Amino acid sequence: MQIAIVLYDRFTALDAVGPYETLCRLPDAETVFVAERTGPVRTDTGSLAFTADRTLDEVTAPDIVVVPGGPDPGTQMANTALLDWLRAADAASTWTTSVCTGSLLLGAAGLLKGRRATSHWLALDRLVPLGAEPTGERVVTDGKYVTAAGVSAGIDMGLTLLGRIAGDDHARTVQLATEYDPQPPYDAGSPQKAPGHIVARLREHSRLIVS
């Protein structure tokens, strides 16, 4: 089984690392980071880079596709090379997945028409013109498409898919091995729970470009 995690300029690191830390533990699986060119690909902070070991042209039929998001999805939504690859890879994949605004890239490729999907809460409305039905759920499975909400939800997506493929006990084992037992010091992880002034401030000053 081959798992292809797509990298592009200014992707969000945890969007890629969260699914990686879970899905790379699938039995007999090969995980590859792919991009238009091999070599370092900078995350949205600019201070961290991941290494793409394969080009898009070299990975033509992955079993699982993982598309991370980033704060400026519009740039990649107009990236013909990436969208063409997503369509071709999806034609061969068993599972096509995304984290955060990565679902907008799937939508821009025409893969989410008529399907339920999620994204970062600041970007949910942008799924509508792409033909998808947005939902605020943390992980959404519709057929072979599995989309996750913002950033940290990629871990949940990875565990969800791990359970579907390798069984619940294997997924539980990975959850325990990674000690994924969230006990955050604050209960402000969604716009429904966070104080109103924080939600408003984030809407105004977010690095996520939503227009």
Structure description:
By secondary structure, the chain is α/β, with parallel strands linked by helices. It has a single domain (2-205), classed as Class I glutamine amidotransferase (GATase) domain (Rossmann fold), CATH 3.40.50. 33% of the residues lie in helices and 20% in strands. The strands form 3 sheets. The protein has a 7-stranded mixed beta sheet with strand order 5-2-1-6-7-11-10, sandwiched between helices. A two-stranded antiparallel ribbon has the order 3-4. Helix 1 (13-23) links the parallel strand 1 and strand 2. Helix 1 runs parallel beside helix 5 (153-166). The longest helix has 14 residues, at 153-166. It starts with a strand and ends in a 6-residue tail after the last helix.
Give a topology summary:
Blueprint: E1 2-6, H1 13-23, E2 30-35, E3 39-42, E4 49-52, E5 54-55, E6 64-67, H2 73-77, H3 80-92, E7 95-99, H4 102-108, E8 116-117, E9 133-134, E10 139-142, E11 145-148, H5 153-166, H6 168-177, H7 196-205
Parallel strand pairs: 1-2, 1-6, 2-5, 6-7, 7-11, 8-9
Antiparallel strand pairs: 3-4, 10-11
Helix pairs in contact: 1-5, 5-6
Name the descriptors.
211 residues, alpha/beta, Rossmann fold, seven-stranded mixed β-sheet, two-stranded antiparallel ribbon, 33% helix
Largest sheet: 7 strands, mixed
Strand order of the largest sheet: 5-2-1-6-7-11-10
Strand content: 15-25%
Number of H/I helices: 7
> How do the helices and strands follow one another from N- to C-terminus?
EHEEEEEHHEHEEEEHHH
Oligomeric status = single chain
Distance between the termini: 37 Å
Number of domains: 1
Mean pLDDT: 96
Q: Looking at this structure, what is the CATH superfamily? A: Class I glutamine amidotransferase (GATase) domain
CATH class: Alpha Beta
CATH topology heading: Rossmann fold
The helical percent reads: 25-40%
Rg measurement, Å: 16 Å
**Count of distinct strands:** 11
Structural classification: alpha/beta
User: What is the CATH architecture term?
Assistant: 3-Layer(aba) Sandwich
Q: Assign an overall shape.
A: globular
Query: Low-confidence runs (pLDDT<50, min 5 residues)?
Result: none
